[in-house]
Specification:
The structure is a single chain. With 343 residues, the chain is an alpha/beta fold. The protein folds into 2 domains: 182 residues, Rossmann fold; 136 residues, N-(1-d-carboxylethyl)-l-norvaline Dehydrogenase, domain 2. Keywords: Cytoplasm, Lipid biosynthesis, Lipid metabolism, NAD, NADP, Nucleotide-binding, Oxidoreductase, Phospholipid biosynthesis, Phospholipid metabolism. It comes from Candidatus Desulfatibia vada.
Length: 343
């Protein structure tokens, strides 16, 4: 028994073996849980079985013997008390549809994916709710916060938030994931936690562009601050608690992703600022930079709702309309003058 959780009695499946999925699965396995991990790539499954390492997505970190990889979705999610989903947002719906026939209505489903679906503009938990009607809404949870996978794998102190409509579910997930180096807070603001985790990736691309252009620290600080205002503006329009954006899933994750060298979204932006084209950048990446697709969702959703998000819109114009980053910066700086708190 640890933190009120009997490790031997809880069956957990993790869906997705990218860097973040592997890091979280291994965190749970090291804690003592027997973890079944669904792996899309056969080569990754073979690497974990042969070398106890995910050489493609999380190289140089030995994985616990409690972690067992499978390419069989039914094997991973059937009969589980808790299923953690950590797949790119653009394949969330397709992946969950494969799971749906194998889940029990008693299963707690936790999303650690960060994005907004392009066609529907739904957050990940909203996609789960739509695709998994057998699962009560109270049994869904979202895990988010400032957390690079490699640093979690290194057991660096990390602090995140888990949100659920049901306080007992949030506390249950909190205790499942909590370790001496991985502290988990709870929240009931699922929308706010998910939007903070998704939209910060778009702002991180903008921050990378600023760094790639060499525009300095003043500019980056201003961009992060005004980017947070945009995230809060969209979130409150969708019913989120504005205080959420001053927390771990808001400003915490935003600052990390806009400044950390391990940020894939910042890296994409920096290369754009240095003159590379998006298609060229993405062709060199094996892992997903969520902000690229989320930029399109945020652009369309904010226009639909009438929410002003000038930074996010300029990121969209740069990515999808080939607008010059310098021109985008000029347009942002020469907008009509206004009161800072006039949202």
């Amino acid at each position: 028994m640890k933190n009120g959780i009997n490790i031997n009695d809880i069956k957990i499946g993790v869906v997705g073996a990218g860097s973040w999925g592997t890091a979280l699965a291994n965190l749970l396995a090291v804690k003592g849980f027997k973890i079944d991990l669904w792996v899309f790539e056969k080569e990754v499954k073979e690497q974990i079985e042969t070398f106890a390492e995910n050489k493609i997505f999380l190289p140089d970190f030995p994985l616990s013997s409690n972690l067992r990889p499978y390419n069989d979705m039914a094997r991973v999610v059937s009969g589980k008390e808790l299923v953690l989903i950590v797949v790119p947002s653009h394949v969330m719906r397709e992946t969950v549809q494969k799971m749906s026939a194998h889940l029990s209505e008693e299963t707690i489903v936790v999303s650690a994916s960060k994005g907004i679906e392009n066609k529907t503009h739904l957050t990940m938990s909203a996609v789960l709710k739509e695709v998994l009607p057998v699962i009560p809404e109270s049994s869904f949870a979202a895990l988010s916060g400032p957390s690079f996978a490699r640093e979690v794998a290194q057991e660096f102190p990390t602090v995140v938030t888990v949100a659920s409509k049901d306080e007992q579910v949030a506390r249950y997930v909190q205790h499942v994931f909590a370790t001496p180096y991985f502290r988990v807070y709870t929240s009931d603001d699922v929308v706010g936690v998910e939007l903070g985790g998704a939209v910060k990736n778009v702002i991180a691309i903008a921050a990378g562009i600023i760094d790639g252009l060499g525009l300095g620290l003043n500019t980056r600080a201003a961009l992060i601050t005004r980017g947070l205002a945009e995230i809060r503006r969209l979130g409150t329009k969708l019913g989120a608690n504005p205080h959420t954006f001053a927390g771990l899933a808001g400003v915490g994750d935003l600052v990390l992703t806009c400044t950390g060298s391990l940020s894939r979204n910042h890296t994409v932006g920096k290369k754009i600022g240095q003159g590379m084209k998006l298609a060229e950048i993405l062709s060199e990446m094996r892992m997903v930079a969520e902000g690229v697709k989320t930029a399109k969702s945020v652009y369309n959703l904010s226009n639909k709702l009438g929410v002003e998000m000038p930074i996010a819109h300029e990121v969209y114009h740069i990515l999808y309309e080939d607008i010059s980053p310098i021109e985008a910066a000029r347009r942002l700086m020469t907008r009509d003058l206004k009161n800072e708190l006039d949202d």
